[in-house]
C-alpha cells in the first residue's frame, strides 16, 4: 500500500468507523491522475464506462460515465480541488453529449469535500446508506398483509417496479429508455429465481400495494460493494416500491419490518441501500428506518468536454 493510500485510509477512519479501506475500481482501463498542492501529492484513477443501448445499467443513469476515484491523502480538500481541476483539463476537447456525466463517490460525512464538489458543479444524486442490526423497527398499523412473493405475482411486481422507476426518473438518476418495462420484468424474474427475498404487501381483496425486493451481498474483492462496505455478509434492500394510491399509509413501513426481520435472520453485519437525496420522500423515510448515509455519489451532467 502506498503512503498516499495510507493517508487516505487514516482520514476515512477518522471520518466514519463504518468506512472500509479504499479499493481501486475493477477496470483494466484505469488512467492515473497525479497533482501536487502545497508540496503534498494527491492522486486518483480515471475510468470511462459506456453502457450499451438497451442495457440494464442504462436505465439508472447516463450512458457515458467518466468516473474519478480520488485519493487526495493529507492534501485534503485542496488536493481534491486540484484533482478536479486537472480532470477537467484532461477532458477538455473530449466529445461529450447530453447523455454523459462525470461522477465521483465520496464519504458522506466529509463536509469539506462536499463544498469542493458543489463549487465544481457536482450535485449529490445518490447515497449509499447503512443500517446496523440493532436499529429499532416499527411495523406500524397499515391495513395490509405482507407475504413472500412468488412466480404468480410477476405482473403485480413488474407494475410496482415500473412505477418506482418512473418516479425515480423524475427525482433521481433513472433515465427514460425504450424497452424499460421488458428490462424491469426480466429483473423481477431474476430476483424471484435467485434471491427469493421479495415481499408483496396486499390490501383487502388482494390488491397489490407495495413490494420490497432484497438480496444478500458480500463485501469481498471483485464484488460490487467491495471498497464501499466493511467485509462480511450484508442485507441489501434493492427496491422498495409503494403503489401511488397507497403512499403515505404506512405500507413501506410494514414491508420493511418484515424485510429487516428476514434479512437479519441471515446473521448479516447490517443492511444497506441506495436512495436519491433529491427525492422528497425517500430520505426522510429511510432515516426514520434507522439508515444513515455512508457514501454519496456526486454527478456532474453533462460531462466536462
UniProtKB/TrEMBL annotation:
<protein>
    <recommendedName>
        <fullName>N-acetyltransferase domain-containing protein</fullName>
    </recommendedName>
</protein>
<dbReference type="GO" id="GO:0016747">
    <property type="term" value="F:acyltransferase activity, transferring groups other than amino-acyl groups"/>
</dbReference>
<dbReference type="Pfam" id="PF13508">
    <property type="entry name" value="Acetyltransf_7"/>
</dbReference>
<dbReference type="InterPro" id="IPR016181">
    <property type="entry name" value="Acyl_CoA_acyltransferase"/>
</dbReference>
<feature type="domain" description="N-acetyltransferase">
    <location>
        <begin position="144"/>
        <end position="305"/>
    </location>
</feature>
<dbReference type="InterPro" id="IPR000182">
    <property type="entry name" value="GNAT_dom"/>
</dbReference>
Amino acid at each position: 500500500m502506498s503512503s498516499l493510500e495510507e493517508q487516505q485510509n487514516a482520514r476515512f477512519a477518522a471520518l466514519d468507523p463504518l468506512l472500509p479501506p479504499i479499493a481501486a475500481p475493477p477496470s483494466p482501463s484505469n488512467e492515473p491522475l497525479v497533482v501536487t498542492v502545497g508540496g503534498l501529492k494527491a492522486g486518483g484513477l480515471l475510468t470511462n464506462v459506456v453502457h450499451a443501448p438497451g442495457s440494464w445499467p442504462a436505465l439508472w443513469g447516463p450512458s457515458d460515465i467518466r468516473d474519478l476515484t480520488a485519493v487526495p491523502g493529507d492534501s485534503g480538500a485542496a488536493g481534491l480541488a486540484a484533482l478536479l481541476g486537472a480532470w477537467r483539463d484532461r477532458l477538455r476537447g473530449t466529445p461529450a453529449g447530453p447523455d454523459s456525466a462525470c461522477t465521483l463517490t465520496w464519504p458522506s460525512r466529509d463536509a469539506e469535500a462536499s463544498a469542493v464538489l458543489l463549487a465544481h458543479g457536482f450535485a449529490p444524486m445518490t447515497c449509499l446508506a447503512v443500517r446496523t442490526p440493532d436499529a429499532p423497527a416499527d411495523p406500524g398499523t397499515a391495513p395490509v398483509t405482507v407475504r413472500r412473493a412468488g412466480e404468480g405475482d410477476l405482473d403485480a411486481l413488474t407494475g410496482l417496479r415500473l412505477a418506482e422507476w418512473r418516479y425515480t426518473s423524475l427525482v433521481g438518476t433513472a433515465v427514460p429508455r425504450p424497452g424499460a418495462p421488458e428490462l424491469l420484468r426480466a429483473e423481477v424474474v431474476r430476483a424471484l429465481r435467485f434471491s427469493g427475498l421479495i415481499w408483496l404487501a396486499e390490501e383487502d381483496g388482494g390488491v397489490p400495494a407495495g413490494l420490497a425486493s432484497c438480496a444478500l451481498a458480500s463485501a469481498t474483492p471483485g464484488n460490487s460493494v467491495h471498497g464501499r462496505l466493511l467485509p462480511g455478509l450484508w442485507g441489501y434492500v434493492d427496491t422498495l416500491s409503494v403503489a401511488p394510491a397507497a403512499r403515505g399509509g404506512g405500507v413501506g413501513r410494514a414491508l420493511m419490518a418484515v424485510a429487516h426481520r428476514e434479512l437479519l435472520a441471515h446473521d448479516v453485519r447490517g443492511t444497506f441501500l441506495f436512495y436519491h437525496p433529491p427525492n422528497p420522500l425517500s430520505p426522510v423515510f429511510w432515516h426514520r428506518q434507522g439508515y444513515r448515509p455512508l457514501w454519496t455519489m456526486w454527478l456532474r451532467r453533462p460531462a466536462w468536454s
